[in-house]
Amino acid sequence: MDKRKLVLVGNGMAGVNCIEHILKLKEQSYEITIFGTEPHPNYNRIQLSYVLGGSSKFEDIVLNDLEWYEKNNIHLYTGHTVTKIDHEHRVVHTDKGIVESYDELILATGSNPFILPIPGAHLSNVISYRDIKDCEKMIEASKTYKKAAVIGGGLLGLEAARGLLNLSMDVTVIHVMDTLMERQLDPIASKLLQAELEAQGMKFRMNAATEELIGEDRVEGLRFMDGSVLDADLVVMAVGIRPNVELAKEHGIEVNRGIVVNDYLETSVPNIYAVGECAEHRGNVYGLVAPLYEQGQVLAKRLAKVETKPYEGSVLSTKLKVSGVDVFSAGEFIDQPDTKAYRFQDDFQGVYKKVLVKDETIIGAVLFGEIDEGVRLFQMIRNGAHEKELKTIFSRAKTEKESGTSQVMDMADDELICGCNGVSKGTIVQAINELGLDSVESIKGCTGATRSCGGCKPLVQDLLQCTLGDNFQKVEKEPICSCTALSRDEVVEAIRSMKLTTTKEVMNVLEWNQENGCSKCRPALNYYLGMAWPKEYEDERTSRFVNERLHANIQKDGTYSVVPRIYGGVTSPEQMRKIADVADKYEIPMVKITGGQRIDLLGVKKEDLPNVWADLDMPSGYAYAKALRTVKTCVGEDFCRFGTQDSIQMGIDMEKRFERLWTPHKVKMAVSACPRNCAESGIKDIGVVGVDGGWELYVGGNGGVHLRGGDLFIKVKTREEVLEWSSAFIQYYRETAKYLERTSHWVERVELEHIQEVLKDEGTRAELIKRMDEALESSKDPWKEAIEERSVRQMFEKVTIS
Amino acid sequence: MRVSTLIKIGTVDEFQVNVGKLVEIEDHAIAVFRLADRKFNAVENRCPHKGGPLAEGIVSGDYVFCPLHDWKIDLKDGNVQAPDHGCVKKFDVTIEGEEVFITL
């Protein structure tokens, strides 16, 4: 039987999302054709502001690349505009002469930017802000012109204005009302937003109506109703959008403001549907993405002949995507005589929160400055939750600490647990129940949760515990990866007692279920073997992550960054000249000071790395490695009027002592010359603080994902003692921590008192230091090695055939 | 009709075992892997996730792990492994004597 034919007019987010749902529900049910006017595959229009702001390229915001269309057997016509619908014969015609028949037709023609009907609107450099073409025009204009005016202080206008600021333009936003984003914010939040944006350099003309645009061919300025004038070389109109209904209207489909649809997205003509910004449902036309997706889901089920609830309209929520500003709003948020509000305002921190309640039901909210509660509030608003539930939100952090129960219990199934990979609570619970998962590791394998930044691991752990209930046994034993059931301690013990000397041997003897291991266990085994047999073990390059194999940091575009060692952060004019020369010679696109007081050369091509290193003639800074990164220092007693110690020399000594030492995870250190802690010793793996007549050593500090202040480990009198105690600490960490366990986690796991107890014994310290010296003995500077040894150098070469 | 061309990309010993190598031919960027003495595989050097350079990934058996976000890809057929989805284009590699050829 021939497949039924489905035609989609409009290759944008709403329409294509609907097609994706249909494919998910019934892969082979339709032969699908898509027509799009823009010459691109479907991209994320919401993220245009990132392209404009320069943080994303067009490729980054593509949602469905051409391969996707191909893989799903979709005929895609880009650059084609459908001009005619013949619903008697069920065919559509395009401007380029294609005629396509359909059984079902979806209109997702989106909307057009509204251009103010004022004199001068046709001048060049007057543009709208709607598609990738508009972005390109703005970027182009910013290269020549300086002064930009954005008409419209709504969401779109402010995003455009922020993008233009990033392009170094002088930007004035013109708004006809006296508050910004009045459809999404209440007056207090609007004013806070305006103040914040002004601080970022944006200018505003409020209560200003534009009467005409001045200029000959190109726009040169704006004249307002009150007669005043503003110079501008570029004018962006972001005053609103109009549903694109022309096509429907011309062909007898009922149109009001948008194309009129019922609760199943059906138009007035059989077999023709509409979704997205072009559709009008129960008198509402939506311009935000969430409602469009909700519509798409209902229509997809309808077309795939799966039972569905009708679409009954959407509650809106907004998050403003402007750097440095967190704003959220949802539902109804303007105070009325019959509403009550929960309010919180902190002018010092720039935080404002308001939740509106009517008849004991939560109906809307505005959050400014801190929007963590946004997701939960939005759900409550959608569900019409009782005002009592507000308590569970705003006092949650407190109760959690007091009662020890986890917040995951209160979360709804569709709330996200893993923000990086978009995994919801429901997905994880389902995976635990249906697949019988019993560890965070297996949840990661099936759902992807915790895979990226790992910040959600405690939540997943809690969720696992709550879901399994009595069946959950807190497993002390955590396998090192999914290739084995053995824990770190068992593997290391086997390596030592059975004298295992290569990763292959470990995997064979200990019966790995994956013969060749994986990207988790191989680097770990390589580390454990090197730690256990410092003299004998030959490092396995193939078991190292690219950064440690090539001794540089891979960047998202496949180039690398190079950070030379600059001991204690103390450089010299000569060294700086050398670095500058290298940056010029290899056309290095960015030279940046790092957080650890070093110089980062970013964007180096792989094949240039050995030459860059040779020309620098400096040791590797190990900025890519699980090893000592840097020792940050303050200027110390030689210069500072508060300094009590020579922190610079102490830092240099420590950096020279520990450089090239492989550790379970990266190790950062700092030395400050007084408790003012200008080198941030409190958040380092080892932080040294000079005090009058001695030094304090702090350990287990961390300024990253796991923010933690260091614990005072010991106070000593001399520089030698600082080196002795930090050496013993590092070596004990090397020998007992799990691979990829930072000192902050390790100290919490084995406990500070235990470490202090072990290292208290002078003999133990001496033994540890001896073993560390053995490990350092055989270490060589990797950059030098790459320059000198042909076999290493070979790795940096590529093959080019022309 | 599709015409395939064999293109020489080097000799066997120019490829280190279990270390990927980037081979650029015309518009193609191809990650070539020598998995054992005379066993080669080649795929497009572009992870379907965020375009990561697969030639730099850790190789484990028949799989390569993308260096950017650890996606696991089967070099035998180019398929992405669960929990992720997708596939990369695969190229045929043949060895004659000591010479390595790729089919385009």
Description:
- The complex is a heterodimer of chains A (802) and B (104).
- Chain A has 802 residues and is an alpha/beta fold.
- Chain A has six domains: 4-111 and 243-303, FAD/NAD(P)-binding domain (3-Layer(bba) Sandwich); 126-239, FAD/NAD(P)-binding domain (3-Layer(bba) Sandwich), CATH 3.50.50.60; 326-394, 2-Layer Sandwich (Enolase-like, domain 1), CATH 3.30.390.30; 409-471, Arc Repressor Mutant, subunit A (Orthogonal Bundle), CATH 1.10.10.1100; 488-544, no CATH class; 628-780, Sulfite Reductase Hemoprotein, domain 1, CATH 3.30.413.
- Helices cover 33% and strands 21% of the residues of chain A.
- In chain A, strands 3-2-1-7-19 form a five-stranded parallel β-sheet, covered by helices on one side.
- In chain A, helix 1 (13-25) packs parallel to helix 8.
- The longest helix of chain A is centred in the last third of the chain and has 18 residues, at 719-736.
- Chain A is globular.
- Mean pLDDT of chain A is 89; it is low at 396-404.
- Chain B is mainly β and 104 residues long.
- Chain B has a single domain (6-103), classed as Rieske [2Fe-2S] iron-sulphur domain (Rieske Iron-sulfur Protein), CATH 2.102.10.10.
- Chain B has no helices and ten strands.
- In chain B, the strands form three sheets. A four-stranded antiparallel β-sheet of chain B has the order 2-3-4-8, with no helix packed on it. Chain B has a three-stranded antiparallel β-sheet with strand order 1-10-9, with no helix packed on it.
- Chain B is globular, with a radius of gyration of 13 Å.
- Chain B starts with 5 loop residues before the first strand and ends with a strand.
- The mean pLDDT of chain B is 90.
- Chains A and B meet through helix 13, helix 18 and strand 37 of A and strand 1, strand 2 and strand 5 of B.
- Chain B: GO terms for molecular function: 2 iron, 2 sulfur cluster binding; metal ion binding; monooxygenase activity; nitrite reductase [NAD(P)H] activity; oxidoreductase activity, acting on paired donors, with incorporation or reduction of molecular oxygen.
- Chain B: This is Nitrite reductase small subunit NirD.
- Chain B: InterPro entries: Rieske-like_NirD, Rieske_2Fe-2S, Rieske_2Fe-2S_sf.
- Chain B: Keywords: 2Fe-2S, Iron, Iron-sulfur, Metal-binding, Nitrate assimilation, Oxidoreductase.
